[in-house]
Amino acid sequence: MRAPALPEGFVTSSHRNVTLVSDVHCTDALVRAGLDDPSGWRRRLASGNRRRQQEGRGATARVELTPACVARIKQLRRGGWLAPLWRDRFAGTHRVLENLRLPVEAARSGIATPAPLALLIERGLPGLVRAWLAVEEIDDATDLRECFVSGRPPEPGELDAVLRLVRTMHERGLEHRDLNLGNLLLRRSGEPAAWVVDLDGARLHLGPLPFTTRQRALRRLERSYVKTCHPRPAGDSVRRSIYTSYAAGDSALERRLARGRRAGRVWIQLHRLGWRGK
After folding, report:
1. For residue 41, what are the domain limits?
2. Are residues 161 and 114 located together in one domain of the fold?
3. Are residues 25 and 107 in the same domain?
4. What are phi and psi of 175, to 5 degrees?
5. Residues 113, 23: one domain?
6. How far apart are CA 33 and CA 5, in angstroms?
7. How far does the chain reach from its first CA to its final CA, in angstroms?
8. Exposure b/e, 164-198, CB count within 10 A at least 16 = b
9. SS3 sequence, the chain?
10. Which of 156, 158, 169, 254 is 20 to 30 A from 101, alpha carbon to alpha carbon?
């Protein structure tokens, strides 16, 4: 499979078995921060200046490259049933390089997502690589999971802003393969604003996503809320609001989503059987 073309303004530099792909404006700062070598990323991610994701694929850390350029860094990891086998290894560079191209293409389509800044690729066993990603830090933004567990759940207008973003993603063809509370950021000061993060493994289609794909994404988001917040099994207003906010006044879509949601309750309950400490 041919590797995706690098976004405009990105450059590469290599030494030994390591390649740094970076925004040309950040390259020198990344090198000064030691992020041209895997040991620098590991050290930063092991520091106290990190955020542990309760859902998703590991910790992230904040790194101030310059006063005007602050990054959020993470190691790319696989999810799903095979995660314990593959862990942080990827076959070839295509998927990891998509973490640069996809956010740029999504932003051009009007989808709010942090801009990528750098990708470090370490080649290991034949055909396998590890990778670390840096994206811009969104000031004063909190992921939805933190909003709920902190005791300050999103107000209706704030939840509307997040679900408008999800609807925009789907209308413009972005299929996020791991949509959960931790991958949606909310800025609560002033007019509510939202961003989607962690596009690893996402797909950008040529047209709007089909209904079944949208329903599956919303069901995953609802499941994330159930897992995080232990809501009552029925009659929970937040769970309903996920769908009503997404429909945004489209009564036909809201009815169709409601029918699919009823069918999905069994699916969510089956997932609960595998959760630990719930």
Report:
1. 10-136
2. no
3. yes
4. -105, 105
5. yes
6. 26
7. 42
8. bbbbbbbebbbbbebbbbbbbbbbbeeebbbbbbb
9. CCCCCCCCCEEEEEECCEEEEEECCCHHHHHHCCCCCHHHHHHHHHCCCEEECCCCCCEEEEEEEECCEEEEEEECCCCCCCHHHHCCCEECCHHHHHHHHHHHHHHHCCCCCCCEEEEEEEECCCCEEEEEEEEECCCCEEEHHHHHHCCCCCCHHHHHHHHHHHHHHHHCCEECCCCCHHHEEEECCCCCEEEECCCCCCEECCCCCCHHHHHHHHHHHHHHHHHHHCCCCCCCHHHHHHHHHHHCCCHHHHHHHHHHHHHHHHHHHHHHCCCCCC
10. 158
235 has pLDDT over 50: no
Distance CA 76, CA 87 (A): 9
63-94: burial string, b at 16+ Cβ within 10 Å, e else:
bebeeebebbbbbbbbeeeeeeeeebbbeebe
Q: Tell me, yes or no, whether 76 and 94 share the same domain.
A: yes
Report residue 94 as tokens.
């295509």
Render pLDDT for 151-197 as a digit per residue (tens, 0 to 9): 888 999 999 999 999 999 999 999 998 899 999 999 998 899 999 99
Contact (Cβ atoms closer than 8 angstroms) between residue 257 and residue 167? no
Domain shared by 162 and 229, yes or no: yes
Quick count: other Cβ atoms within 10 Å of Cβ 139?
Answer: 8
Tell me if 46 is assigned to some domain: yes
The 10s digit of each residue's pLDDT in 18-54 is 999 999 999 999 999 999 999 999 999 998 555 555 4
CATH of residue 162: 1.10.510.10
pLDDT tens, residue by residue, 213-227: 999 999 999 988 988
Q: In this structure, are 162 and 235 located in the same domain?
A: yes
